[in-house]
Design goal:
This protein is mainly α. The protein has 29 helices and 9 strands. The strands form 4 sheets. It has a 3-stranded mixed β-sheet with strand order 4-8-9. The protein has a two-stranded antiparallel ribbon with strand order 1-2. A two-stranded antiparallel sheet has the order 3-5. α20 packs antiparallel against α21 and α27 packs antiparallel against α28. The longest helix is centred in the middle third of the chain and has 16 residues. The radius of gyration is 26 Å and the shape is globular.
């Protein structure tokens, strides 16, 4: 983990909140500037082996919060574990998060498929219990929390440096990083030891799925499958056998998995174009016209500037928003309003996989260009190209302190994360010796005036052998080419293919994807030399994808974005909007900053995690009653048009020509908002909110209850699942 990547300032701004603040059902009210997430104590259920990331002689990174003391603005590497709290208390308390089978049977009032009470009252005395995966460090001299580690050591003149390098100084042309190694002073961790053998979990998602809740989810995932000629053929040949409250409709399934939320427009496009043609269209985003909201992104003045232009702007324009804020706002806008939905889903995927935090010391100029020139440029291209571009971009170099690494003073951060997080994964077969050699090889990658430079005079010269990559690395001038060749080797390694395949299957199929699918995706990735589009087409042409209806739960950001999309929120300000006199940004930018702040409050926003591992992609990691109710309250505010900086469809106009009876009206509204009809039991529960029966005559406002009815639908399992 980078030892100097702590955000130096609050990432959020002072934008006003148009809706009223509402307490969560678990009584969570975060202190000013404090994350709502807590952290478990060592030995709690969140740490099955009774170890804690700060145990076993680990040192703390500068700026990293101590257990129980979240850093201001920190995002969820500290998740509220509702299941753990219930386990201790002996039963459920407050609203429950939604699993793939809907709300799990817990006894009244949440039994079976019933909808939870929409009650905003807090529960006094409720203590949030955090969950964090436990990762044990690889060295007693360095911490390893959430999948990272770092050691900077001065090798010249040291016994350790001499023995690793074959008793030769760095950079003299005669070095040999492949020489026999000794331990680094820790007898129980020799240099050649496989890193995963001293870790609690192999990677982040698995750490959560190792819980009791994760074991239950595995029972409901498709066990195996096959790849057919195309997506439509696979959809037609697949019988959905998993338990789910969602309609087993392939068009609805594709729309909820390949976008940030189905809308009537998206469903109509898939139905008209056909599954195969719609996917081909989505896989060519450059041919999809920009939407009105995307054209309005011109109101973010830094979004398309180069690093040089951003430097000049910083020196001449005062009191303006930083580019790192504006790229996050633009990401939010694109997720909500872009027609290039599959592309935006993949951008978000890569921002978790090859993660660089949106806000870190030194990133105010460079991070936005990383989004544009690395992630977005290669999101549907080739991962080898992306990994090389990332490692030669100043944002990643500074984020992981590579600019401080010198042939005489090695920093391991980037080399370690390239192996552990960005390519082969913890179980990818590398050893500590591989990390050291990679760190030596990658010296020379640097930054000057916020731009990437290769410094030959800082590059280690000498033989290296890393996971099957071998090079004499015989000259400082040729070092950059050797580094890039090594990175391409990593990107196309068999373990990288498996790791990316597992991650894609987890994102698109289920939290416990079948091994059969992962193997086929990895095979396609390898055969196509890291190309993303063929790998995605294999995924969409697999019966496992089409058979996994309802097996993914929306994370907080995904829930909010899908809610904004389905309610038809418009990027234009409402007639009641009044711009603050002191606000220099446009109403559109002001609104996007508010949405980003709301996402941050719920614990997830684009590229928001401060640590290099990215957000987890399994629902067990996000089980928080407070977050769930907070999302419902935001839906209620949007339904009522409380955020005046945007325009909304009035709730009584969500259904054109609404039926005159309550039951028929609810059917129509259900199709509009959750894209399927409800069961008779679910209908009765929601009609009870309005105090009517199915036969009751109602007007377009549902006799004044339309907002409450719409909110109940958006709090249902049918909207939480995707």
């Amino acid at each position: 983990m980078a030892d100097q990547n702590v955000p130096p300032r609050r990432s959020r701004d002072d934008s006003p909140w148009d809706g009223r603040p509402q307490p969560g059902a678990d009584g969570y009210r975060p202190a000013p500037g404090q994350s709502p997430y807590g952290r478990p104590a060592p030995g709690s259920d969140a740490y099955p082996d009774a170890r804690h990331p700060q145990s076993a002689g680990h040192q703390q990174y500068p700026g990293q919060p101590q257990p129980g003391h979240p850093r201001r603005g920190q995002q969820p590497d500290q998740y509220v574990d509702q299941w753990t709290e219930q386990h201790r208390a002996g039963g459920p308390r407050g609203p429950q998060w939604v699993g793939p089978e809907g709300l799990q049977p817990q006894g009244d009032p949440y039994a079976g498929s019933q909808l939870p009470e929409l009650d905003d009252d807090g529960e006094p005395g409720r203590r949030n219990v955090g969950r964090r995966r436990a990762l044990v460090t690889l060295s007693g001299a360095a911490a390893a929390v959430a999948g990272a580690g770092a050691i900077a050591f001065a090798a010249r003149g040291t016994d350790l440096g001499d023995k690793i390098l074959g008793n030769t100084p760095f950079g003299n042309g005669n070095g040999n990083a492949t020489a026999a190694a000794i331990t680094d002073g820790t007898a129980d961790r020799p240099s050649g030891q496989q890193p995963s053998t001293v870790r609690t979990y192999t990677e982040q998602n698995e750490s959560y799925m190792g819980s009791r809740a994760g074991a239950e989810l595995k029972k409901n995932a498709p066990a195996s499958g096959r790849t057919l000629a195309g997506p439509a053929a696979a959809a037609a040949a697949t019988e959905v056998t998993v338990k789910t409250v969602l309609a087993k409709d392939p068009i609805r399934h594709l729309a909820t998995r390949a976008t940030f939320g189905a809308t009537p427009k998206v469903l109509a496009e898939i139905k008209t174009m056909g599954i195969d043609e719609w996917l081909r269209w989505q896989l060519a985003p450059e041919k999809i016209a920009p939407t009105k909201a995307e054209l309005k992104l011109s109101e973010l003045p830094t979004l398309n500037l180069s690093i040089k232009q951003l430097r000049e702007r910083r020196e001449t324009v005062k009191d303006v928003d930083n580019s790192d804020n504006e790229f996050v706002w633009a990401s939010v806008a694109r997720q909500i309003w872009s027609d290039r939905q599959l592309f935006e889903v993949m951008v978000d995927f890569w921002n978790d996989f090859l993660h660089v935090a949106a806000f870190f010391d030194g990133g105010d100029i460079t991070r936005s260009t990383f989004d544009r020139d690395v992630i977005r440029k290669h999101a549907l291209g080739n991962y080898a190209d992306m990994l090389v571009a990332a490692n030669t971009h100043p944002a990643l170099i500074v984020y992981l302190n590579q600019h401080e690494s010198h042939k005489d003073a090695i920093n391991e951060n980037l080399a370690r994360e390239n192996l552990e997080l960005y390519s082969v994964g913890v179980d990818g077969g590398y050893t500590e010796m591989d990390v050291r050699q990679a760190a030596m090889l990658q010296t020379g990658l640097g930054v000057d005036k916020d731009e990437y430079v290769y410094r030959a005079n800082r590059h280690y010269v000498g033989k290296v052998s890393i996971l099957g990559f071998k090079s004499d690395n015989s000259s400082a001038e040729g070092g950059e080419a050797v580094i890039k060749a090594y990175l391409r080797h990593l990107a196309l390694h068999k373990s990288t293919a498996n790791y990316i395949a597992q991650s894609l299957a987890t994102r698109f199929v289920s939290d416990t994807p079948p091994k059969s699918l992962v193997e086929r995706l990895a095979k396609t990735y390898t055969a196509n030399k890291g190309a993303i589009k063929p790998t995605l087409m294999t995924l969409f042409s697999s019966t496992e994808f089409w058979g996994a209806v309802g097996q993914k739960v929306r994370r907080p950001m995904e829930y909010l974005v899908s809610t904004y999309r389905v309610l038809g929120m418009s990027p234009d300000p409402s007639p009641e909007y009044q711009k603050r006199a002191d606000l220099r940004r446009s109403p559109f930018a002001d609104g996007l900053s508010q949405l980003k702040n709301k996402m941050e409050e719920l614990g997830q926003f684009p590229a928001g995690l401060s640590t290099p591992n990215g957000y987890p992609d399994v629902y067990v990691a996000w089980t928080s009653a407070g977050t769930m109710v907070n999302g419902w309250n935001e839906a209620h505010d949007v339904i009522n048009g409380n955020r005046k900086v945007f325009s909304y469809v009035k709730p009584e106009k969500l259904v054109a020509a609404p039926p005159a009876t309550a039951g028929a009206y609810l059917d129509a509204l259900s199709l509009r908002l959750v894209h399927q009809k409800l069961t008779a039991k679910e209908k009765a529960l929601i009609l009870g909110i309005a105090g009517v029966t199915a036969e009751t005559k109602v007007d377009a406002t549902f006799n004044g209850a339309i907002a409450a009815i719409a909110r109940a639908l958006l709090a249902s399992p049918q909207h939480h699942l995707r």
